[in-house]
Specification:
heterodimer; A: mainly beta; 4-stranded antiparallel beta sheet; 3-stranded antiparallel beta sheet; about 0% helix; elongated; B: alpha+beta; 6-stranded mixed beta sheet; flat
């Protein structure tokens, strides 16, 4: 997985706010259901898991299946506990992992 | 010499006819006996992949309808990317929150779309993503609450061009 994921956070937030976190990673999400032009099955290759933690605390995770579209896009929320860092992880079939860390801008 | 010969022919016909009738009766008898012994069972189709996926998530739980808002187009022009958003009315506290949201499709070759795990830190029981839909079918949402109860909600989506690379 060479393509970098995109992450969108609010420019600023306050403790107690419920913010929206948007993520998108470029990936074909090959279903394993298709065949190539010679009729051979194309093996499945998808992002099968996503996990978000904030300062080490579990926030949100996802198990993705071939029914999820290419370039998986995920939007979820967080009630801001205070300043800190988000860690986002994508896991591909075969075990390749992509991790991104983003600091949340929290104003008092 | 001709007479006994004719007789024997008739006799043989009778025997043959008798045998045939006898076998027919025997066959009918066997069929009748079989019907008495084993009444025709109503054809029970094996559970579909969708039903199996539903059972795997629910176990013995009986989902209740309600409190799930599923935003999804009524008509999807492109089944490869159908945007959806799910929200559930929940305070999202440590003692009362939505633990998981499961997204299923009733007629895709593989019924599971995604399963999301939420926490009280989420603040709101909401998730949005995009799914593939091979054809017109139902999108079914199961929400698992911290009380281990399940909610169910569903909507039919008409698909103009199917997804899943078919």
């Amino acid at each position: 997985m060479s393509l970098r994921p995109r992450i969108k956070l609010p420019e600023a937030s306050r403790p107690g706010d419920i913010i929206e976190i948007k993520t998108l990673i470029s990936h074909i999400m090959e279903t394993g259901q298709r065949r190539d032009k010679d009729g051979r099955p194309i093996p499945r290759k998808i992002i099968n898991a996503f996990r978000a933690t904030f300062e080490g605390q579990e926030l949100f995770s996802a198990t993705l299946y071939p029914g999820t579209s290419a370039n998986p896009y995920l939007v979820f929320n967080m009630r801001v506990p205070g300043p800190g860092e988000l860690e986002l992880t994508w896991v591909e079939d075969g075990g390749a992992i992509t991790t991104e860390r983003v600091r949340l801008n929290v104003v008092a | 010499m001709t007479r006994p010969r004719r007789v024997s022919v008739v006799a043989r016909r009778d025997v043959l006819a008798g045998t045939g009738a006898g076998m027919l009766l025997l066959a009918l008898g066997q069929r009748a006996a079989a019907q008495v012994a084993k009444p025709p069972a109503p054809p029970k189709p094996p559970p579909s992949l969708y039903e199996q996926a539903l059972d795997k998530i629910l176990g013995d739980a009986k989902p209740m309808p309600g409190k799930i808002t599923l935003e999804i187009p009524e008509i999807a022009e492109n089944g490869n990317t159908v945007p959806y958003a799910i929200s559930i009315d929940s305070p999202m506290t440590a003692t009362d929150h939505v633990k998981a949201i499961h997204v299923l499709s009733s007629l895709n070759p593989l019924p599971n779309v995604a399963s999301f795990q939420l926490t009280p830190l989420s603040g709101r029981a909401y998730v949005s993503s995009r799914m593939r839909l091979a054809k017109t079918q139902d999108v079914v949402i199961l929400a698992e609450l911290s009380s281990s109860k399940f909610l169910i909600g569903q909507r039919t989506v008409k698909v103009t061009i199917g997804g899943c690379g078919g």
